[in-house]
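Subject: Interface between my chains keeps coming out wrong

I've been trying for a while to get a sensible model of this assembly. When I model each chain on its own everything looks fine, but I need the whole thing in one frame so I can look at the contacts. Pasting all components below, labels as-is. Any help appreciated, I'm running out of ideas.
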Amino acid sequence: MDAPIVNESSFSAANPSAYSLAEIWPPSGDPGIVGSGGPRAGNLDGSAEESTVTEQSGSGRKRKDANSEDESSKRVSSSCVLGSDLNNSNGAKRTKIAGSRDENGGSKVEVEANSVACNKLSAEQSAKPSEPPKQDYIHVRARRGQATDNHSLAERARREKISERMKTLQDLVPGCNKIIGKALVLDEIINYIQSLQHQVEFLSMKLEAVNSRMDMSPALDGFVAKDLMSQPFDGTGMMFASQAARDYMQGSQAQPDWLHMQTGGGFKRET
Amino acid sequence: MFCGFQMKNPQRSPTNPGSVRSRFTQVFLQSLLRIRKHSPASSSSSSSLGEFLKRCHRVKVAAYVSMARAAGTRRAWSRAMLWRVRHDAHRHRLLQGRCSRSSSRERSPGKKKRRTKKKKKRRDDQEHGFGNAEKLQKLVPGGEAMDFSCLLDETAHYIKCLVTQVKVMRSIADFYSL
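Reply #2:
Try treating it as a single job with all components included. I did that and got this:
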């Protein structure tokens, strides 16, 4: 049997043939369902334009391959793979998924390539692998059209982790939700961090001026108590505490003018 | 303002922004008091820009240190920041002891930090955003020795703490500059 080739074309989910395939699938090994009983060779191009016929033949072929291989869970995965092939017989790309499948000596990680339609199959196939004994390795479902060897798996897991963290970062940074594209989002994050650091520096200057200007220990306890109670700052609350502070502040107003700038202005300076 | 801030991240359980904020406030206010006590009494008369900038830098460092302490040592960036400050304070003191005071008025020990802290400058050419990853590594303390996914994680926490810090500092400044 020649190595089956997987078609990589994008599978439109609105393909009604998927449903027919799902109906065909449960009765296993029944060649009677196969209408054409047609091309047994791995050549999928010769399939008719009618996708249902293709799938029927493909499913028949798939089952026959499965029977011929006579290995437990690989069969299921292989059939799923083929099912996904056949759903896209008019596919553009073809990749050899089956390298792993054919080489599987029963101790490798198996991957089932799921297509959009094959998700329905997978629901049924997940019942099927209960027959084969559970292996020690983790069965990972790869997405359609992606390579399934170990390195790619690790790569994919890492990429997903990174994209998940990028999403949380996007939630943190305001205005980042609309930006699409990792590079731009990263630029935005970098700008945001820089602006925050500039704000800290600016505020530290302001605090230093405030610090040197007045004696704030009497009002300090009021501030700490209020803040630790996590009350929102309203004007009235601050009035009472700052009254004492203001008495001290009558004196020196030796503050440079540029410190009166708002912090928002400082932020705008950078952008 | 603070209530709104607290309600923004209720689901981030390991880094509770409320507790970080309160811890930061406490530590920072204490450090401000300490700075004020240690600064010379005639602070208003010392109007030279250099002195002013030095004091501002001290406030800034105090802010960062108190933020790092409030964040806890579980986070890589806070550990890196504390290490950096301690290391640079030590080196700063050494320089002051050796050279004259004017030369040690280097207002950016950050540059020295980056030069010394480059122990493991792992060139991270991961596929996505590898050019920006370097800039991000420089911004986030301790980011040089991290892979990209850890860097993103630390960045998220760092941003949260920075936002807290800015809010608290702004509220303090507004409170006392009325």
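Reply #3:
Confirming on my end. Residues 3-22, 27-131, 230-271 of chain A have pLDDT under 50 and may be disordered.
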